[in-house]
Design goal:
The complex is a heterodimer.
Chain A (H helix, E strand, L loop, with lengths): L3 E3 L9 H5 L11 E3 L5 E17 L2 H10 L2 H13 L11 H8 L4 H8 L9 H17 L14 E17 L2 H8 L4 H10 L1 H4 L5 H8 L4 H8 L8 H21 L1
Antiparallel strand pairs in A: 1-2, 3-4
Helix pairs in contact in A: 2-6, 4-5, 5-6, 7-12, 10-11
Chain B lengths: L7 H4 L1 H12 L5 E6 L6 H15 L3 E6 L4 H14 L8 H17 L6 E5 L16 E6 L8 H11 L4 E4 L12 E3 L16 H10 L8 E5 L8 H12 L5 E6 L8 H12 L5 E5 L5 H10 L2 E4 L8 H8 L4 E4 L4 H4 L7 E3 L2 H13 L1 H18 L2 H17 L5 E3 L1
Parallel strand pairs in B: 1-2, 1-3, 3-4, 4-5, 5-6, 7-8, 7-10, 8-9, 10-11, 11-12
Helix pairs in contact in B: 2-15, 4-5, 7-10, 8-13, 11-14
Classes of the chains: A alpha+beta, B alpha/beta.
Chain lengths: ~260, ~400
Amino acid sequence: MVRSHVLYPLSYGPQKALILHNYAMETVTPIKLPRAKQPFRFFSRMALSIATGAQARDLPSLLGGIRSAPEPVIYEHTYGFLQRHRFLTPETTNDFAGWVTVVLREDKAGERLAAIDATRCRTIRELRESFVAILSRAIEGTSPPYRTAPEGQEFHFMSAIRYSLPTAHEAWDLAELAKALGKIGAASLYLHVFESMLRHQEGRSDLSWWVEEELGESELARAIEALDPAGQSLEFLRARLIGIVERRIADMTRG
Amino acid sequence: MAKLREYAGIVGAQTIEEIETLATRLAGKTVLNVNSTAVGGGVAEILNRMVPLLQELGIDASWEVIKGGEAFYAVTKKFHNALHGDKQDITPKDCQVYEETNDSNLEKLALDADIVFIHDPQPAALVKKRQAQRNRWLWRCHIDISRPQAEAWEFLKPYVEKYDAAVVSSPAFAQKLTIPQVVIAPSIDPLSDKNRELDPALARGIVEKLGIPLDKPLVTQVSRFDRLKDPLGVIEAFTQARRATNARLLLIGGSADDDPEGAQVYQEVLDRARNNPDIVIRSLPPTSHIEINAIQRVSTIILQKSLREGFGLTVAEALWKGKPVIAGAVGGIPQQVIHQKSGILVHSVEGAAYWIKQLLNNPEYARKLGENGRERVRENFLLTRHLKEYLLTFIFCLRGAGEELVRL
């Protein structure tokens, strides 16, 4: 049975980003929005960084470290890196690229590493292989001695312990979804829109899966999957995502 | 003192909600913090805020300060400098004084909390009497131990390895240890007297009351009088820059109870600055939080030219106030300052002098650095992030290592 929900214009909290992207619905005629059989329940993602003690000083030792690192280490320097950029726009997409560019001044390799889109890799293994391929190519194209990090600027491999915590927020339809997206923490947003792609392994995230399977919103699901955390802060992405959902609601309202 | 909900205007209501939910997993647990000074220095400042917030969240948190004589603090200052990498002559007698003081404190402290949270090397040896499996012990190292003097570290390490986990401020400070090392950067409290917003007229009034003239741009270093903060290097850098600019140097400091060298360094600074009317030096009591806040706000540039640093919270304080910062690239400072983006990192007196001139002559660039710095602090170095990570660490400690993904 598809339950329905009466929709009225939405109002959100005080976040500037949300106000900027609050697509006002001109048509205020209440409509019945399709309701899911199962609500979308938001979880929060928190992580604790753990030092591994492993370091790299040049490209070969970085490559060796990436090859042998446990998966949580690769996670911490990629997904963990992006998740830490709530307000500031990240200048790169992962810690490896930043270090290779800024400290080793290996610009070409740094650019290529930065171009890796972690959220498009189906598994951490695939992600690791992308880094290994670029670094191997960079090393093959360079003759020793390799550029070395100055003392004190070595790359420190870190691991992460991830924690999931249920929140009080849930959504049964698109209106509730848009509202909840304005209230959840940035890490929760990151978990359900990007990190969860690792779990689904089909290029889908928790959120895109839910809007498609529960609400039949395939186009909206594709739009959510097309969001890219590279070069954008999480607050900016939040505003964009809410904009996408609100636009869909507005289209439905207009009929 | 501000309640947790009051931080929502700065970090967002979502962050506060996350912390509150997380804390429900620790409701009723007892956490005892132990350090060596109640006032002065970043550790005491953090504990002054952290303990009431933990209590507000339903965690039975408390804080004890160990007691030691002059000899003990002279020894721990030596340890402190040696762990920072400065060569020190550590004698068997020093080790004996350290152990005896820890032993005498063991008789007075009830160390039976669910989590015993020991801060820094001074009380680290309290762990010797822990009863395995009865409770959990955490050692929080607030200083840069990336290149410690071997004798000092070899003495301390067996104690550290008796803990369940260590907490360090930067991945670079991690050591080869048999216990997990959690990385947690320290933080500043944006609502404390030292960091809260101040009306500009009020700030100027407070500074003028201290006898600090405001007729020229102020280039300020706020740091205790400690050789590792390089106050003499700051005077030299300012003197070099002064030839091309018209500014005033302000050195503001004090000393902590556990720092016996402070008075001596203060005198050396006074001697070096004598006869230079453009250098103002003030030693303020450790409770001068509003005064420090006002001084940072009226300053044009903030310096933190440390030679060694734990984390360097004065940098975060200045960045939070939107000030351009010139700081030594040591300890935790490069975590806070991205060179030429959220501040300036220097490695020498000459570098500091060059950038003082540059920033005084390019106020628009200086303003942009300050703006970026403020956002960097909002994202990474505020008390709420620190509190959340401590809660996670307590959970980690109570559950034990071995899990990569934990559903709470």
